[in-house]
Amino acid sequence: MVRTIVELLxxxxxxxxxxxxxxxxxxxxxxxxxxxxxxxxxxxxxxxxWGNDEPGHVFTCGNIGNRVVQRADAGEAGSGESAPDxxxxxxxxxxxxxxxxxxxxxxxxxxxxxxxxxxxxLAGDAxxxxxxxxxxxxxxxxxxxxxxxxxxxxxxxxxxxxxNRLVEYNVDRQVEFxxxxxxxxxxxxxxxxxxxxxxxxxxxxxxxxxVNVDGERGVEGLREEYPEIASRVGRLWEY
Length: 239
Fold this sequence. Notes:
The protein is α/β, with parallel strands linked by helices. It contains 6 helices and 7 strands, in the order αββββαβαααββα. Helix 3 (113-122) crosses helix 4 (133-152).
């Protein structure tokens, strides 16, 4: 462990040397242009995927399954059951409510382990209680949102295809939750995207592909409405 910390701190030396003067305008307050919520995965580099190296520009959140939902109390719904007590996660809502942020981006990624684990649990291919309670809680939050997508999967989809379609489906459901929430002002533009490092979407590894804007997920419609990003709009699954 010590060697790892030594390496991390050496990297921080480089970071601090490069960034020393970049905090002048944001030392006392922040007004990020966007809040992003990505999956907690070591391969998903939240700032780097946007080419961002400016403090104060992007407010980053990360969790298992790039969720925007949390439960308002300690109740457990269980995978696949309804959860009427869900609210927008405070991590995502904070910059919207307090710093004037008007763009929210939900970013899933190809081969998502959280989506895979939820898929296995709902399909009966995982032993109940096999995960530690904290992980089980996160998967239980995903379950109700993914269950209809699993039921709608095409019969001829193999496992990898099914999971990557569900990655999109999960992004859609998280975007939908934000769009429909009274806690999120109408001024906020909500974008759903998938980060691809597995050559699934046909572009370069590390590209972000837009799959949803404010609840609209039709590829042709999005390309027509947003011609400046038309080349980056694409889906694996239009259901």
